[in-house]
Design brief:
By secondary structure, the protein is α/β, with parallel strands linked by helices. It has two domains: 169 residues, Phosphoglycerate kinase, N-terminal domain (Rossmann fold, 3-Layer(aba) Sandwich), CATH 3.40.50.1260; 156 residues, Rossmann fold (3-Layer(aba) Sandwich), CATH 3.40.50.1260. Helix content is 33%, strand content 15%. It contains 14 helices and 15 strands. Helix 5 links the parallel strand 5 and strand 6. The longest helix is centred in the N-terminal third of the chain and has 15 residues. The protein is elongated and about 70 Å long. The C terminus is likely disordered.
Length: 401
């Protein structure tokens, strides 16, 4: 696991300015302005509470969305107001990121209070990792805490630039993400199974290749299973298949066979001839799809096989849904996997935005070992890549002149 300082390594921070990078890129209903999923905000609370209890002046910064220019829809003002409902400490907001207004707001801060800056991406220098912008952010504080694992794969100024100039620490969420994910990469309890789903094989080729060096078994579902089945010669009707990835799928299957790693692919499927939530559907065996059929979920036979394979597992990684789980008619396999994982005597780690949404839909998130807040960051970490935001925490900050 990467070596880095944690909150427990911080000196006395009473009255000190602590700049905290969080990932508050949360969904907000455009009509009501209400936050529809506060998982990431609640995930940052242990870090914020730790700093507040130690009487720090906490300056919170985050991005939200992909704004071209500053706009009210992507502003963090509403997020700051929501955070205030979760904490007894005062939370204020400044509609700037750097500059005189921010400096004045920080000077007015009392210990054990929070000031949230405006959306970092309202300034193009954030995504450009501009050194001058990094220094301006660093000048706001005495210490830097990174609790934004979900953004750790982005080399932005707030993630990789600021730690060059300030003593830097991993927040509680960042620390837990790195600890849990590093354990299943390096020292998983066995048998270790991975369940990989989602739409495209091409998005997860590196992940699958890396997992074949680690797991004791692999389950493939979702749209990507169609491509693996097609690679085995099955006719898939109108199902989504990536023709250009068929040789890659064949190679991965051959690799698994050579390593004696079982790969569970669907034996039956839930199919429909139209892609809509209320489309008539039926269960067919693999190899029996009609010309107009498209696979939208795994069938009951496959679900039973998955449940049986997972029963003895000691570690399970799940990334990607098993079907079009947003529609109830095609959510059966995804929900079944979620409920099965909740009953296992195993370390269960769920990563990837759709998988996280699935375990929340199944109401089993609290029964699993770890539900990652990272989407792309989790994927890249499990692929064995070095995340820029994590690498930046391994370097000591320099004194600002």
């Amino acid at each position: 696991m990467p070596s880095f300082h944690t909150l427990d390594d911080m000196p006395n921070i009473e009255g000190k300015r602590v700049l905290v990078r969080v990932d508050f890129n949360v969904p907000i209903d455009a009509t009501t302005g209400m936050i529809t999923d506060d998982t990431r905000i609640r995930g940052a609370l242990p870090t914020l509470q730790f700093l507040l209890q130690r009487q720090a002046r906490v300056i919170v910064m985050s991005h939200r969305g992909r704004p071209k220019t500053p706009n009210s829809q992507d502003s963090l003002r509403g997020v700051a107001a929501y955070l205030q409902t979760l904490l007894p400490n005062a939370v204020s907001f400044v509609d700037h990121i750097v500059g005189d207004e921010v400096d004045s707001a920080i000077q007015r801060m009392a210990p054990a209070t929070i000031l949230m800056l405006e959306n970092l991406r309202f300034d193009p220098r954030e995504k450009a990792d501009d050194p001058g912008f990094s220094q301006m952010l660093a000048h706001l504080a005495d210490y830097y805490v990174d609790d934004a694992f979900g953004t750790a794969h982005r080399a932005s100024a707030s993630m990789v630039g600021v730690p060059q100039y300030l003593p830097s620490y991993a927040g509680r969420l960042m620390e837990r993400e790195l600890t849990v994910l590093s354990e299943i990469l390096g020292h998983p309890d066995r048998p270790y199974w991975a369940i990989i789903g989602g739409a495209k094989v091409s998005d997860k080729v590196t992940l699958l290749g890396n997992l074949l060096d680690q797991v004791d078994g692999l389950i493939i579902g979702g749209g990507m299973a169609n491509t693996f089945l097609a690679a085995q010669g099955f006719f898939m009707g109108e199902s989504k298949v990536e023709p250009e990835v068929l040789p890659t799928a064949q190679h991965l299957l051959a690799q698994a066979q050579a390593k004696n790693i079982p790969v569970i692919l669907p034996s039956d499927l839930v199919v429909a001839t139209e892609f809509r939530a209320d489309a008539p559907h039926r269960v067919v065996a693999v190899g029996q799809l009609g010309d107009q059929d498209m696979a939208l979920d795994l069938g009951p036979g496959t679900i039973s096989q998955i449940e049986a394979q997972l029963a003895p597992a000691r570690t399970v990684l799940w990334n990607g849904p098993m079907g079009v789980f947003e529609w109830d008619a095609f959510a059966g396999a995804t929900m079944a996997v979620a409920h099965t994982l909740a009953t296992l005597s195993a370390k269960v780690v769920v990563g990837g935005g759709d998988s996280v949404a699935a375990v929340h839909k199944a109401q089993v998130a609290d029964k699993l070992t770890h539900v990652s807040t990272g989407g792309g960051a989790t994927l890249e970490f499990l692929e064995g890549k070095t995340l820029p935001g994590v690498a930046a925490l391994t370097h000591e900050g320099q004194e600002l002149r």
